[in-house]
Amino acid sequence: MVEKKVKSKRERTEIEFPIVGIGASAGGLEAFEQFFRKMPPDSGMAFVVIQHLDPTHVSGLTDLLKRYTKMPVFEATDGVQVKSNSVYVIPPHKDMVLVRGTLQLVDQTQRQAISNTIDIFFRSLAEERQGRAICVVLSGAATDGTSGLEAIKAGLGMAMVQDPVSAKYDSMPRSAIATELADFILPPAEMPEKLITYVQRSYGKPATRLPEAAKEDADSIHKIFFLVRMRTKHDFSGYKLPTLKRRIERRMSVNQLDKISDYIRLLEENPNEVDALGRDFLINVTSFFREPEAFDILKEKMKGILKDKPRGSAIRMWTVGCSSGEEAYSLVITIKECMDELGREFPLQAFGSDIDNHAINRARAGIYPLSIAADVGEERLKRFFISKDNAYHIKREIRDTTVFAVQDIISDPPFSKMDLISCRNLLIYLNRDTQRKVIPLLHYAMNTRGILFLGSSETIREFTDLFSELAPKWKIYGRKEQKNPAPIAFPIRPLTQRTHGLPTVETEVVVKAGARQLAEKVLLEALPPSVLIDEKRNVIYVHGEIDKYLKLPRGETRLSLLEMAREGLRAGLTSAIQEASSQKKEVHRESLRVKSDGGIKLINVSVRPVAGPEEGPGFVVVFQDAGHPEEQGPVKSGPKITNAAEARIAELEQELEETRESLHSRIEELETGVEELQSTDEEFQSTNEELQSTNEELLTSQEELQSVNEELVTVNAEQQTTNASLSALNDDLINLFSSTDIAVVFLDEELSVKRYTPTATKLFSLIAVDIGRPIYHITTALAYDNLAEDAKEVLSTLIPVEKEVKTKDGRWFTIRILPYRTAENAIAGLVLTFVETSRLQKLNQELKAAMDYANSIVATIREPFLILDAELRVISANHAFYRTFQVEPGETEGQLIFHLGDGQWDIPRLRELLEDILPKNSTFDGFEVDHDFPNVGRRKIILNARQLFVEGGTVSHRVLLAMEDVTER
């Protein structure tokens, strides 16, 4: 049982060794060198290097990294198992992910204008290793790695970023730092030490665990919550305690603390650590179009709502916990696409709320890294985004539609009358009691046919009476209408808490369903008649009875307020609207004389600028009766009017009428001019859109060029390092060629000279200009006419040729002709080597002469003798032996002496002398053999034996056996 436990522990340790993802782009090679030179080879970690590489260029990164570390460095292959103390490098034109401890490669279908290879791997690392994931972002252009780092941090992993000051290209590090999620910001050379310390704490022993039972430990947790609330103004007591504990434990590990009391002391002394813990609590991780299939289903459900919407009504949506805005903008884009596909336009009002002020500011800016291209898609990028300053900016038509606000769904009142509410991946972090408060609030905030969009791991829990399932798999719910709705309670954050962030008791306000609608109806009925007009003076909305102020004009109907105004009202309206438009304030016109129902009425008019629909600003025009002229008081008595006075009055009235007609004509001319200007403005807008489209295309091309330039920078860095190595190697070769006496000539496949050593000039009349000339066109000192033929034969058969060749001045050379093989084992010519053997030839001749001399002496000796080897086999015999015993060399040489002549030399005493005594004494003399030999009869032979020695006294394992025939004595 014990052995089984030990084995399981060993297996678990092997599986859980740290895997560190290292992302870099331009300037990354220098950072890699600094990092790996300081990383020991036995750290227990595995390193996966992801760099932007030119897909058309064979990368030398793997070979270059081998120079900086003693760890084995591999170019990753599909399915390779990651092992500790190893480095794996992504190959060109591939995306790479980590799946169950193996690296899986995916072909990039086309050259990416904006590479997100680093983000792809970091996300897979976060999913695979969760809290044990580690990522490092080094030098590089653009923003790749940022969203991947956010995914690592969402899973409670650790993130390191290169200090931008030390980075050759600082765009990637600065983008990662802007998330405020980096645990360490260091130069590459300082990272290994911090990394090893972190790993030893996180992997070398069980992670720090906060106790739960003891009262003092519970008090410690609540004290941490209090410190965070005092600093950030956010109360996290409604969140799930285990989730927050894990984040506290991670911060303790980063700060190398074991006791919670020490960590509380750090929080009290270091406000920056409180901010860091608060950011970890907030879990601000999102992306565009998370789970695209869910958005596809949502689009179909929203189409059903849009089809039944009355024309002119607004679409309202709310993203709860919007973080940095990606989810909110994704929903707006989705609704825009729905309206385009249905051919129906509605005013769109979108709201995004979150408790993190920094995230809300990022959402309001609407600026995102280039790596969002993988989530958004090319078509949506062109339509809804603008590429600018190495980032993507949300277009104004989408940005102006969305309002972002800091709001806590737990303690602030909700928005209302929403057609769509998205609350994705927020409920999973709230405890059960808080969820029971939030879900009814979401129901209250929705319209009758509203849709609730939750995350894939969330549910409406027991509130099935409030919502129906529209798409259970993707957690899309529809609002159920209740006949007798229960009172809805939601908290109102007290003013003191909003201002100072002090902990106070929540106040609950109970609002009965429908009370708000009743209040709105009563207030609207109490308002005077009014109209809403746009910037072109067209009527958009009418409230109340306005027939006595406006009337439909004859002919082609146009909803222009000035054309619909009754006589006497137009001039006052025109001047009031112009003044309100220019001064941006409410303008009043009183006692305007208006003809209505055959009489004259006095009208008061108010014009107030308001935020209008997408076309531009608008105005609210309010009409109020001011009575009849006779009600203004009696006319004061005066002198009697004479006929002349009456004539003068008639004349003045006629002039006034003419002036009115002239003014009316001028107003119409002015309106016509305004329409022409508006038409011209529309043309300019159309031209501007075309220019903007062209600018977007140019920006896209610029991004592609930036991506290519980034890859070229990486390739250039590799080439510079390789060139430095080749330069050193070339110096070595030059010194080798200069110092060697061996003549070497390199030929290409056409037998033309590519390179030669200085010694080769002694055999061939070679000078620098001969490079590229065929070898057989060059004068040579060799008496070798078949050089070209032999060279062609070697190229054809790949069989090396070796010959002894003599020069014209009598020197000898050994020539070897070998195939020239490249690193890919391809044949790219020949290598000719010439080794001078003149001295060897002279020694051979001297040796041959000595041998001939020795053989002559041996031949003149009349006594027989044998030369035996170590096994006592006959190596040779002299002519006297063959003549005396009448045998042939073939019968003798190579035979054991004891087998000669049918065993006639197999004499026990002779065997003892040769096998035992001779090796010890090196010689014996006077051994007599009396034997009847075939062919020659009986003979008496005296044998003398001696071991042969070479210079220095060592035994040569040869035995000289001399014989003396004494038969006649």
Overview features:
969 residues, alpha/beta, Rossmann fold, Chemotaxis Receptor Methyltransferase Cher, domain 1, 6 domains, 7-stranded mixed beta sheet, 28 helices, 37 strands, 40% helix, elongated
What do you see in this structure?
The two termini are 96 Å apart. Mean pLDDT is 78; it is low at 1-15, 204-208, 211-216, 492-523 and 633-640. The protein contains 28 helices and 37 strands. Strands 3-5-2-1-8-9-10 form a seven-stranded parallel beta sheet, sandwiched between helices. Strands 16-12-11-17-18-20-19 form a seven-stranded mixed beta sheet. The chain is elongated. Helix content is 40%, strand content 23%. The longest helix has 97 residues, at 643-739. With 969 residues, the protein is α/β, with parallel strands linked by helices. β14 (385-388) and β15 form a beta hairpin. It folds into six domains: 14-202, Rossmann fold (3-Layer(aba) Sandwich), CATH 3.40.50.180; 215-282, Orthogonal Bundle (Chemotaxis Receptor Methyltransferase Cher, domain 1); 292-481, Vaccinia Virus protein VP39 (Rossmann fold, 3-Layer(aba) Sandwich), CATH 3.40.50.150; 530-632, 2-Layer Sandwich (Beta-Lactamase); 740-841, PAS domain (Beta-Lactamase), CATH 3.30.450; 861-965, Beta-Lactamase. 29% of the residues are buried.
